[in-house]
UniProtKB/TrEMBL annotation:
Record's protein name: LytTR family transcriptional regulator DNA-binding domain-containing protein
InterPro entries per the UniProt record, alphabetical: CheY-like_superfamily, LytR-like, LytTR_DNA-bd_dom, Sig_transdc_resp-reg_receiver
Keywords from the named record: DNA-binding, Phosphoprotein
Domain of life: Bacteria
Pfam families to which the protein is assigned, alphabetical: LytTR, Response_reg
Residues annotated as domain HTH LytTR-type: 137-242
CDD domains: REC_LytTR_AlgR-like
4-aspartylphosphate modified-residue sites: 53
GO function terms (MF aspect): DNA binding
Length: 242
């Protein structure tokens, strides 16, 4: 697995590289002193993991993640400050390591990374495998690419032969039918609301009665309002009832 280290302190980068030598299957293919340097490296090398410092000159690790729209691997934050731990997991980081980094703690992170990569590989090799909230998918729309964990996808919308995925502030198109998408997604998490929409049940903010015995749900995030057809409303109630 390929790794890139982003840290403004050269000694910190060297120490992390030294620790990673204990994991022969992890290859450090690049390092950067700030987020400006790493952007081009990601597109060129497409690593499996990014070890990302938080406090750096210019953009912080968080600020960069909020604006970066290109290829993004798994992110493991490395920082001397424990105050950012909650925010790190809010942006779906794989892990959060405090400096000075302990070898046993780094080993735990590598194990998480291995499990994540193995899950992605199984999903690719087994088309019948249902993708759950913790699985990650590769999305390409034009020149932009993302690795997206499905717990970030709140809505799938049919657009003819394409499906538009809604996650964060992004709305890329995927060349796949909504029926094919439904076949791949875990029905305990992703619910077919109507002919055009699949919703992530974890993003439902509000439910209201709607016309002809149907329901209308409002999703967290951007507040999209999606109608659940009368027929699907029966399934919806059965699925979520005690």
């Amino acid at each position: 697995m390929k790794a890139i280290i982003v840290d403004d302190e050269r000694l910190a980068r060297n120490e992390l590289k030294r620790l990673l030598e204990n994991f022969p299957h992890i290859e450090v293919i690049g390092e950067a002193a700030n987020t400006d340097e790493v952007s081009e490296m990601l597109e060129t090398h497409q690593p499996d993991v990014l070890f990302l410092d938080i406090q750096m000159p210019g953009k912080t690790g968080f600020e960069w993640l909020e604006t970066w729209e290109g290829f993004l691997p798994e992110v493991i934050f490395t920082t001397a400050f424990d105050a950012y731990a909650l925010k790190a997991f809010e942006v779906n980081a794989l892990d959060y390591l405090l400096k000075p980094i302990d070898l046993s703690r780094l080993s735990e992170s590598i194990q998480k990374l291995e499990k994540q990569v193995q899950a992605q590989t199984r999903a690719i090799e087994s088309p019948s495998h249902k993708l759950g909230a913790q699985d990650q998918i590769f999305v390409k729309d034009g020149e932009k690419c993302w690795f997206v964990r499905l717990d970030r996808v709140r809505l799938c919308e049919s657009m003819g032969n394409y499906v538009r995925l809604f996650f964060d502030d992004q709305k890329p198109l995927v060349l796949k039918s909504l029926n094919a998408m439904e076949d791949r997604l875990d029905p305990k998490v992703f619910f077919r609301a109507n002919r055009k929409h699949i919703i992530n049940l974890n993003y439902i903010d509000k439910i209201e009665p709607w016309f002809s015995g149907g329901l209308q749900v409002t999703l967290m995030g951007k507040g999209e309002k999606i109608e659940i057809s009368r027929r699907q409303s029966i399934r919806f109630k059965e699925l979520l009832s005690l």
